[in-house]
Write a structure and sequence with these properties.
There is one protein chain. The protein is of the alpha/beta class. The protein folds into 2 domains: 7-171, Rossmann fold; 177-292, N-(1-d-carboxylethyl)-l-norvaline Dehydrogenase, domain 2 (Orthogonal Bundle). Helices cover 50% and strands 12% of the residues. The chain has helices spanning 14-25, 37-44, 54-60, 71-79, 106-117, 132-137, 148-161, 174-202, 207-214, 222-232, 242-258, 264-281, and strands spanning 7-10, 31-33, 49-50, 63-66, 97-100, 122-125, 128-129, 140-146, 162-167. Strands 1, 2, 3, 4, 5, 6, 7, 8 and 9 form a 9-stranded mixed sheet that branches. Helix 5 links the parallel strand 5 (97-100) and strand 6. Helix 8 (174-202) packs across helix 10 (222-232), helix 8 (174-202) packs across helix 12 and helix 9 (207-214) runs antiparallel to helix 10. The longest helix has 29 residues, at 174-202. It starts with 6 loop residues before the first strand and ends in a 22-residue tail after the last helix.
């Protein structure tokens, strides 16, 4: 195991910022990059280094952690916009490790591992789960797969960012498959929670009372408890946006379609998020899927 490898983190959004904080709290001094330069500079004021370019970060680090939205953004991080070569892959040294934390098509992840191997770069397929609060406290989950040599370098950094680091295989793909199945459940649970709360509102049930009862009854889920709290507070600031589940449930359905496997609940939930997105709620918190239901009056924010 490589002692205290130099680490870089790309993408200081809701999850990435917390992960970078966890690295710093564990005694690392991460190099960071974000397309919003002021965000990276603000992070570095309390320790670490804000990099002006992806190439600068790649050259400085043995381990690069990418926390961006999707496969297209990951491609841009590695190989530059449009593959122009201005990403981090061009400056990463042979034997360094790229840790990919986005939710992506498993086949794309497997192909990326092979592509990076041609440059001598090791790869860990490492989608993440748990939300922004757990990322900030170092308590999130990493669902990973990769070669033993990659873990030998990156393991102390993974453990600094996550309470649970699952190792699901010696090559990419398994981590992304399990994450997609997790997203199936997460998306369906949010959609079901919204449907239940919407029915309660339609029937004139006090929403706070409904929330109290359900969260102490067998019908509760983590997503009901977490997301319906957003609805009660009328707080649709996006911790995870509606369009994230348009994407992720789309990946769920793509994976199942390839093997002709039926997913009726996932299909319905995907349509609900699509409806919310096209109705103008794409960038709102995913709990805003409740806004597709007609004839209900949603709770208002406290004055």
């Amino acid at each position: 195991m490589t002692p205290n490898p130099q680490v870089g983190l790309i993408g200081l959004g809701a999850m990435g910022n917390g992960m970078a904080q966890s690295l710093r709290r564990a005694g690392h001094a991460p190099h960071v990059f974000d397309v919003r330069a002021d965000v990276a500079q603000a992070f570095a004021r309390d320790g670490g280094t804000a990099c002006a370019t992806l190439a600068e970060l790649g050259a400085a680090c043995q381990v690069v952690v990418s926390v961006v939205v999707n496969a297209a953004q990951t491609e841009a991080v590695l190989f530059g916009p449009g593959g122009d070569g201005h990403g981090c892959a061009g400056t990463m040294k042979p034997g360094s490790v790229f840790v990919m934390c986005s939710t992506v098509d498993p086949n794309w992840s497997m192909a990326l591992e092979a592509r990076l191997a041609q440059q001598g770069i090791l790869y860990i397929d490492a989608p993440i789960s748990g939300g922004a609060a757990k990322a900030a406290s170092g308590q999130m989950t990493m669902i990973t797969a990769g070669q033993p040599g990659a873990y030998a370098v990156a393991e102390p950094l993974l453990n600094a960012m996550a309470a649970k680091v699952y190792r699901l295989g010696d090559c990419a793909g398994a981590g992304s498959k399990v994450k997609i199945i997790n997203q199936l459940l997460a998306g369906v649970h949010i959609a079901a929670a919204a449907e239940a709360m919407a029915l309660g509102l339609r029937e004139g049930v006090d929403p706070a009372a409904l929330y109290e009862v359900i969260t102490h009854s067998a019908g509760n889920s983590w997503m009901f408890e977490n997301r319906m709290a957003h609805v009660l507070a009328a707080d649709y600031a996006p911790l995870s946006a509606v369009d994230i589940f348009v994407k992720d449930l789309g990946l769920v359905l793509d994976m199942a379609r390839a093997s002709k496997f039926p997913l009726p609940l996932s299909s319905t939930a995907h349509q609900m998020f699509m409806q919310a997105s096209t109705a103008g709620f794409a960038k709102e918190d995913d709990s805003a899927v409740i806004k597709i239901f007609p004839g209900i009056e949603l709770p208002k924010a406290a004055p």
